[in-house]
Amino acid sequence: MTTGHSKQVNLAHELIHCESNSNGTNNPNKTLNLIDPDTGSWEDLTFEAVRTRERENLIRNEQGDKDRALSMGDK
Ligand SMILES: [Zn+2]
C-alpha cells in the first residue's frame, strides 16, 4: 500500500478518471487479472484503475511524492 501523498495527488487522480469518462474510455468491463498492490492478492482490476495509477505517478513525481505501488503480475 502506498501512503503519504498530497491533496493535489488526490485531485489529479479523480481528474484522470474524469478525463477517461469524458473521452468514453472508462470501461468497467475491461479488466486485467493482476496482483492488487493494496491487498497483495490476485484480482480482476479494471484497466482504468491500472492506467490511472500509472498516470497518477506522473503527478506524484511532479509534486515530489512517493510513487504509488503499481499492479504486478500476469496470470
Ligand atoms: Zn481511482
Describe this protein's structure.
The chain is built from 2 helices and 2 strands; from the N terminus they run αββα. The protein is 45% helix and 13% strand. By secondary structure, the protein is α+β, with helices and mostly antiparallel strands. The protein has one domain (7-63). A two-stranded antiparallel ribbon has the order 1-2. Zinc ion binds at residues 13, 17, 49, 52.
**Major β-sheet annotation:** 2 strands, antiparallel
How many domains? The number is 1
Q: Which cofactors or ions or other ligands sit in this model? A: zinc ion
Strand content bin: 5-15%
Q: Gap between N and C termini, in Å?
A: 21 Å
Strand order of the largest sheet: 1-2
**N to C succession of SSEs:** HEEH
Cα-atom Rg, whole angstroms? 13 Å
What is the residue-averaged pLDDT? 89
Please give the number of β-strands: 2
Silhouette: flat
Total helical segments: 2
What percent of the residues sit in helical stretches (DSSP H or I)?
40-55%
* Derived structural class: alpha+beta
What are the low-pLDDT stretches, counting only 5+ consecutive residues below 50?
A: none
Present the secondary structure layout:
Elements: H1 7-23, E1 31-35, E2 42-46, H2 47-63
Antiparallel strand pairs: 1-2
The structure holds zinc ion.
Zinc ion binds at residues 13, 17, 49, 52.
Labels describing this entry:
single chain, 75 residues, alpha+beta, two-stranded antiparallel sheet, 45% helix, binds zinc ion
